[in-house]
Specification:
This protein has helices spanning 2-14, 76-86, 119-136, and strands at 20-25, 30-38, 44-49, 54-59, 64-69, 91-94, 99-102, 106-109, 112-115. By secondary structure, the protein is α+β, with helices and mostly antiparallel strands. The strands form two sheets. The chain has a five-stranded antiparallel β-sheet with strand order 4-3-2-1-5, with no helix packed on it. Strands 6-7-8-9 form a four-stranded antiparallel β-sheet, with helices on one face. The longest helix is centred in the last third of the chain and has 18 residues, at 119-136.
Length: 137
C-alpha cells in the first residue's frame, strides 16, 4: 500500500515541474518561480525567482512548508479521452514522463507531437491543435 501511495505522490509532484509555483519556507520566506527540479526529499530547484530577483535557487526540502501551483496543469486526461475516441484502446497516459502514447509509437506532450509520423500522427496532431485552441479560450 505504501508503494502505491508513494507512486501516486510522485505522479502528482511531477505535474508541478516546469510550472510556476510559490514556495513558503518554515521561516516564512516566499519564493515565486518555475519549478525545474525536485527529489524524493523535496529539495527543489527554482528558476527565474521573482521574489528575490535571482535566476536560480536551490531550497533544502527540510525547510519547505508548502509548495503551491500557480498555474493550471495540462489536462492529459481530457486530451487522451479525445484521442481515444479516434483510436479506441490504443491510448495510454504516462504521467510519469508527462506524455500520452498512441499506438505505442506516437508521443504527445503538452508541447505537441514529439515522436511519430504518418497519417496517424497527423490525425493526433489535428486533435491536439483543436484541444489547445479550445482550452486557450
Amino acid at each position: 500500500m505504501s508503494a502505491v501511495l508513494m507512486r501516486k505522490f510522485g505522479e502528482e509532484t511531477v505535474q508541478f515541474l516546469g510550472k510556476k509555483v510559490s514556495v513558503e519556507t518554515s521561516d516564512q520566506k516566499i519564493y515565486n518561480g518555475t519549478l525545474t527540479g525536485i527529489d524524493d526529499k523535496l529539495n527543489i530547484v527554482l528558476d527565474h525567482v521573482e521574489s528575490i530577483g535571482t535566476l536560480k535557487v536551490i531550497i533544502n526540502g527540510t525547510f519547505i512548508k508548502e509548495i503551491k501551483l500557480m498555474e493550471k496543469p495540462f489536462d492529459f486526461k481530457a486530451l487522451s479521452d479525445r484521442i481515444a475516441r479516434v483510436f479506441p484502446g490504443l491510448v495510454r497516459i504516462r504521467e510519469d514522463v508527462g506524455a500520452i502514447i498512441v499506438m505505442d509509437k506516437i508521443k504527445v506532450t503538452q508541447a505537441g507531437i514529439e515522436e511519430g509520423s504518418g497519417l496517424a500522427a497527423d490525425r493526433v496532431r489535428a486533435i491536439y491543435d483543436e484541444f489547445i485552441k479550445e482550452t486557450k479560450k
